């Protein structure tokens, strides 16, 4: 139960109480394009930050404050690098959908940054 409550807490903090859910929803609109087989890989962008929230919740520590394993703070840096690499890869290799790729990258970027910040706070146990 501690993992589920930490997941909900981290998810709500990362998405600014649900407002950040617009990013994956708007990113999923690429599935309505004619070349959806190529542009569907843009869905990896919201999966990166969502996967790290799940990872932090799995390694929840049973304390009074919301806290996760200390190494999750370092995993946040891996998340930022993975997001930057996936963003560059999508922008470079989708020539016909380059503007859509840039829009999806910019839509998910604030949520990725907030997720990184929340993961760092959850790893240290110090909340702003």
Task: Please provide a written account of the structure.
This protein has 128 residues and is mostly helical. It has one domain. It contains 6 helices and no strands. It has helices at residues 2-14, 22-27, 36-39, 44-58, 72-93, 98-124. α1 (2-14) crosses α6 (98-124). The protein is elongated and about 50 Å long. It starts with a helix and ends with a helix. The model has no long low-confidence stretch (mean pLDDT 88).
Give the tags.
single chain; mainly alpha; 128 residues
- Overall helicity: 55-70%
Continuous helix count: 6
Overall 3D form: elongated
Q: Using only CA atoms, what is the Rg?
A: 15 Å
| Residues in β-strands, percent | under 5%
Number of domains: 1
Q: Give the number of DSSP strands.
A: 0
Largest sheet: none
* H-E order: HHHHHH
Q: What structural category arises from helix and sheet content?
A: mainly alpha
**Separation, N- and C-terminal Cα atoms:** 24 Å
Query: Average pLDDT value?
Result: 88
Question: Which regions are unreliable across 5 or more consecutive residues at pLDDT < 50?
Answer: none
List the helices and strands and how they pair.
Elements: H1 2-14, H2 22-27, H3 36-39, H4 44-58, H5 72-93, H6 98-124
Helix pairs in contact: 1-4, 1-6, 4-5, 4-6, 5-6
Short description:
The protein is mainly alpha-helical and 128 residues long.
């Amino acid at each position: 139960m501690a993992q589920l409550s930490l997941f909900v807490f981290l998810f709500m903090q990362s998405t600014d109480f649900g407002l950040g859910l617009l990013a994956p929803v708007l990113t999923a609109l690429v599935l309505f394009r004619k070349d959806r087989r190529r542009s569907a890989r843009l869905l990896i962008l919201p999966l990166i930050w969502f996967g790290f929230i799940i990872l932090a919740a799995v390694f929840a520590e049973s304390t009074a404050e919301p806290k996760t394993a200390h190494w999750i703070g370092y995993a946040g840096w891996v998340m930022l690098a993975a997001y930057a690499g996936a963003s560059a890869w999508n922008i470079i290799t989708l020539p016909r959908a380059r503007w859509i790729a840039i829009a999806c990258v910019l839509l998910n970027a604030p949520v990725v940054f907030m997720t990184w910040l929340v993961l760092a706070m959850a790893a240290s146990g110090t909340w702003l």
